[in-house]
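Posting here for the record, re: glycinamide ribonucleotide.
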Amino acid sequence: MSKRNAAIFASGTGSNFEAIMEAGDLSCDIVLLICDKPKATVIQKAEKYQVPTFVFNPKDYGSKEEYEKVLVEKLKEANISWIFLAGYMRIVGSVLLQAYEGRIVNIHPSLLPDFPGKDAIDQAYHAGVKTTGVTVHYIDSGIDTGPIIAQEKVEVEENETLESLEEKIHHVEHQLYPRVIREIVK
Ligand code: GAR
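Prediction output follows.
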């Protein structure tokens, strides 16, 4: 049977995008990057892997519904079955959620439900927790809510700095996300 097509949504550096591209046999083909930040470095990473990219600026549209309708068109054109959010820093709206119900997955750098939203690593570090981690979950209409698929813990050591914690969390993300993608798409 031929592999399903998947799209990655990202807004930033794209280290998770790169980890997914480097992961080898994923049981789906990553055939599209969608990016909402015209200057994001993930765009150059997509060029490196020859992944077609659709870059849009939300400010060019009247509403979330309007740009998500365009995104759904692009996704259908590319015959996309799965969407993987990898540092996509926008709330997914009803147009996209209805078109891809149960097939949009997100990675978040904390043990949800703790520390949702932006700067989760920073939030956990400054809260002084001894254990934090990474969550992969299905998307619903909330901010970093939705059914959890997998979680992995990361210990915060005595002499931990924010930078060293970020490094540890990203390392876990880069192993966990490709593994979860491989499992759920099968
Ligand atoms: C990752 O740590 C990801 O978990 C986080 O953004 C970062 C993107 O890094 N996502 C969220 O905080 C979602 N709420 P990357 O661009 O290097 O992959």
